[in-house]
Write a structure and sequence with these properties.
CATH class of the largest domain: Alpha Beta
Strand order of the largest sheet: 7-14-13-8-9-11-10-12
Helix content: 25-40%
Radius of gyration: 27 Å
Largest sheet: 8 strands, mixed
Shape: elongated
CATH topology of the largest domain: Rossmann fold
Number of helices: 13
Distance between the termini: 61 Å
Order of helices and strands: HEHEEEHHEEHEHEHEHEEHEHHEHEH
Bound molecules: S-adenosylmethionine
Structural class: alpha/beta
Strand content: 15-25%
Length: about 400
């Protein structure tokens, strides 16, 4: 055992985060841990070995410095055992995602204490959470969608089709409306006057709010037309809040899309009018009536790892690269739909997309055991959506040898 005297001396066990690695603790390992422990301030980090367990006591660390240091050490070592130990230590510390920041250092203990607010509950009441959505008139009585609409792709204008659905009947709406960028859609003029655009969009969204269940969610994926200085994500959010929906949050879909014009600087090297560029899109998330969506816990299919990863609201997902194949200019990738559907709905729930395009939402909803409704104004896109659904059925048959419901 090494360095227990440090613990005894400081009697600070509670001020360290203890991280352990199961590792055979031969003499050369002890030697390496001793080297590590003398290298860094004991107040920040130190190491122990006990019965094949390597213990790392972490308080705070300039991680990038540590990483460089360790890699330098590894490159100078010939002992494979020592090298592997150092790599494992590095990996273990890198994997710790909960820490605070103090200057360049990651702080592993007590970092959340400062943020604690005394009398938080009372203060919340005084502030009034989502005050803008409080005095709504939404009914709490949910209804079933008539069978003829379930698991259907419907050609038509959503403003008209949605009127045929009952109030409070849809669990999750996930959609991406046309952004009015001037894209070449089949049956839709994309690039109208903004006033006209929003009036039409909001007539459709009004219907969406009506058909959402009490506790249902609507998630809207949008990308502002920055060159027109129209913050469509804010305008849409204001609309939903004015209509008494609760803003549940915003997800940044980081596409790492550096296709945006590098030459469009606005004013090159001058503060006179620089032009900001974006490699991401937004997903605005709203709830109707209450933040909680009821469902049987048995029907929650998100794994612990997915949940932990996806509740961090910045999602790195590459853009869809099959748009040519499907003949649609503005699809989102299946992974985006998968995350939204698993995070915000239960298996068996009914998922609707009023701007379904070639059916990404509906095909993913089907794969994930949700019921679906997809509406698009273009017959051609709806045919593609049907083909994708059939293909996923065939895939399922060949993989599992059984018919899906
Ligand atoms: C951004 S795209 C959606 C693409 C879809 N997320 C996908 O991955 O295939 C918007 C879609 O809205 C459709 N659309 C436009 N106006 C519509 C309306 N009034 N009713 C229904 N669909 C409409 C367009 O045809 C287009 O396919």
């Amino acid at each position: 055992m090494i360095l227990t005297e440090v613990l005894k001396k400081h009697q600070m066990r509670k001020e360290y985060k203890l991280v352990t690695i199961v590792y055979p603790t031969h003499n050369d390992i002890i030697e390496e841990l001793n080297w590590l422990s003398t290298r860094y301030s004991k107040e920040d980090i130190f190491f122990e070995a006990e019965k094949d367990i390597v213990k790392i006591y972490l308080n705070q660390l300039d991680f990038s410095l540590f990483k460089n240091d360790i890699w330098q050490r590894i490159s100078g070592l010939t002992n494979e055992n020592k090298k592997q130990l150092l790599q494992e230590i590095l990996q273990k510390i890198e994997n710790i995602k909960s820490y605070g920041l103090k200057g360049k250092k990651r702080v592993y203990v007590g970092y959340d204490k400062e943020r604690k607010v005394k009398g938080r509950k009372l203060k919340e009441i005084i502030r009034g959470e989502y005050y803008y959505a409080k005095n709504h008139n939404f009914s709490r009585v949910n209804n079933e969608v008539p069978k003829e609409f379930v698991n259907k792709i419907i050609v038509g204008d959503s403003e008209e089709i949605l009127k045929q659905l009952p109030d409070n009947s849809i669990d999750l709406i996930f959609t991406s409306p046309p952004y009015n960028f001037g894209l070449d859609y089949k049956n839709h003029e994309d690039g109208v006057n903004w006033d006209e655009y929003f009036k039409k969009l909001f007539r459709i969204f009004k219907e969406c709010i009506r058909i959402l269940k009490y506790g249902g969610r609507i998630v809207v994926n949008v990308q502002p037309l920055f060159s027109d200085y129209i913050p469509i994500h804010h305008i849409i959010s204001n609309f939903f809040m004015e209509n008494k929906l609760i803003w549940k949050g915003e997800i940044l879909w980081e596409k790492h899309n550096y296709n945006c014009k590098y030459t469009a600087w606005g004013s090159w090297k001058s503060p006179s009018n620089p032009y900001l560029k974006y490699t991401w899109e937004f997903l605005e998330v709203f709830s109707k009536g209450t933040l909680k969506h009821s469902g049987d816990p048995k029907n929650a299919d998100i794994t612990a790892d997915e949940f932990k990863k996806w509740v961090y609201a910045k999602w790195d997902i590459a853009p869809e690269n099959n748009m040519k194949k499907y003949g649609h200019p503005a699809m989102f990738p299946e992974e985006l739909a998968e995350r939204v559907i698993k995070l915000f709905s239960f298996r068996g729930d009914i998922v609707l997309d009023p701007f379904n395009g070639v059916g990404t939402t509906t095909v993913v909803a089907k794969k994930l055991g949700r019921r679906y409704i997809g509406i698009d104004i273009s017959e051609e896109y709806c045919k593609k959506a049907e083909e994708r659904l059939k293909l996923s059925k065939k895939l399922c048959l060949s993989l599992f040898g059984k018919q899906e419901d």
